[in-house]
Amino acid sequence: MSDRAVVPPTADVDLDGDTLREECGVFGIFGHPDASAIVALGLHALQHRGQEAAGIVSFDGEVFHSERRPGLVGDSFSDGETIARLKGPAAIGHVRYSTTGGTILRNVQPLFAELASGGLAVAHNGNLTNALSIRRDLVRDGAITQSTSDTEVILHLAARSRKPRIIERFIDALQAIQGAYAIVALTNKKLIGARDPLGIRPLVLGELDGRYMLASETCALDIIGAKFVRDVENGEIVVISEEGIESIRFADKKPMRPCIFEYIYFARPDSVVNGKSVYAVRKNIGHELARETSIEADVVVPVPDSGVPAALGFAQETGLPFEMGIIRNHYVGRTFIQPTQSVRELGVRMKHSANRAAIEGKRIVLVDDSLVRGTTSVKIVRMMREAGAREVHFRIASPPITHPDFYGIDTPEKEKLLAATHDLEGMRKYIGADSLAFLSIPGLYRAMGEEARDAACPQYTDHCFTGDYPTGLTDLAIAGPKRFALLAEAD
Asked: Which residues pair with residue 96 across a beta bridge?
């Protein structure tokens, strides 16, 4: 048996604690009598992108209505009374994981402001890499900020623009910001969508009953029976009004560079992102992983849920049986009280349980989507051994994560990333597996349907693996690497 990791008694045993945290999700619709109810359903489908808070803003032709709540969409927007208060044929919504700003109500989106030209509500997915520096300039010039969310910066920039039309003001704001973002905004006459110049964050256009909508993923269209029209292009603003759809380019045309993590982890498997089926890509990743790292074993076991498609591809490629050797309890929330170490340890089994019948006495290949801190992997390997696994071989369906993200994914600073501080053998010893292997970067690009990674102009945003950041990181000089990596608000 391999070296076992020593986990301190006070270690966090939440199996969700070592994942890459979701970004956020946005949804908007214009001109539909059931706008708010449709937005709520869309947010349900996007719940995987953020579980900390949700909000909806609607417009009834005269007044904007807002409901913003901590917690899950189903906890706040499933009752008829709440939806009834959100009157009007146009609405936008947001599900949040707080990568910027704390989980306090004033940070819950959509944010709303009264401008000289009328009301403006904004919700966004991603992170602005110069929001701190812009905020400092705004405050120095007398602006009063009410949140610590970088979304508020967009509102301020639009409000301060001297342009007469709201769209022109919005363009001014977009041209001043850097980073990765998909934005939905609502005015008294228009629904606006915008996608960053590199298309790092996803945004799609859909249609239902002749009315148009915007969403982070196609799965939000599917839940309401809407038709997918097209992806919003990188550097494009889409304006939806009673006159129809207008497309405006606010940035020079350049090759798209979407976030590779949408395919590895973030997007729902049934979504299609930039024309690629997420499920198909994840299965392809499993095939490539098997070709690169196959080993003598008896069974392939996914780490649920995100490891399932890759494990299925791995099993198909190797001919090994695919078994659900870990069963996930989907009905346990993140707020379970864990006052003592013994109860915390029980919390592991509340969320994930070993399926002993599938793994006892067997050599198992565990397939997971990523390895971040490694603490979760330690506990999963231990769980498999306690359930009688004879050998545990860990396979990771992505390359080693060696650099933090600054575009809306909550990653630890570099010093806490296992792959940044350990070599492969050191990582194997730490998690206690008999063997450990990662998908290579060329293998990842092959799984994406590319012949190879174009080093001069990469097809995807893959900085977590390569350190190749596609935009300027202005705020890094203000916040420092540690705070900026955690995307905490500067003082």
From this structure: 24, 53
DSSP H helices, 269-386, are: 278-293, 308-318, 341-351, 356-359, 375-386
**Any known ligand binding at 423?**
no
- Nearest CA among 147, 122, 123 for reference residue 50: 123
At 322 the pLDDT is 97
Q: Is 34 annotated as a binding residue?
A: no
Side-chain-side CA neighbours of residue 329 (13 Å):
14
Query: Are 382 and 416 within one domain?
Result: yes
Classify residue 149: in a domain, yes or no.
yes
Neighbouring CB atoms inside 10 A of 221's CB total 25
SS3 96: strand
Nearest CA to 49 out of 408, 370, 334 is that of 408
Taking only the tens place, the pLDDT of each residue in 29-50 is 999 999 999 999 999 999 999 8
Domain that holds residue 165: 24-257
The catalytic site residues sit at 24
Is 179 among the domain residues?
A: yes
The verdict on whether residue 369 carries a ligand-binding annotation is yes
- Indicate which CATH number applies to the domain containing 121: 3.60.20.10
Q: What is the pLDDT of residues 99-123, one digit of tens each?
A: 444 556 777 899 998 888 889 999 9
Residue 440 domain flag:
yes
Using a cut of 0.70, tell me whether the model's pTM lies above it: yes
The better pLDDT of the pair 226, 306 is held by 226
